[in-house]
Amino acid sequence: MTLDWQTYTLELSHPFKIAHGTSHTRSAVLVDLDGGLGEAAVVDYHGETVAAVESYLQEAKRALADAPASLQERLRLLPPGGSAAARAALEMALFDLWGRELAQPLWRLFGLEEKLAPPTSFTIAMAQPRQMARLARESQMPILKLKVGDEGDLERLRAVRAVRPQARIRVDANGGWDLPQARAFIPELLRLAVEFLEQPLPPQARESFAELRGLGLPLFADEPIKTVRDVVEWAPFVDGVVVKLAKSGGLASARTMIDTAHALGLQVMLGCMVETRLAVGAAAHLAPLADYADLDGPLLIKNDPFSGLEYQGARLLLPQGAGLGIRRTR
Question: What share of the chain is helix, strand, coil (3-state, %, to 5)?
Answer without folding.
Answer: 40, 25, 35
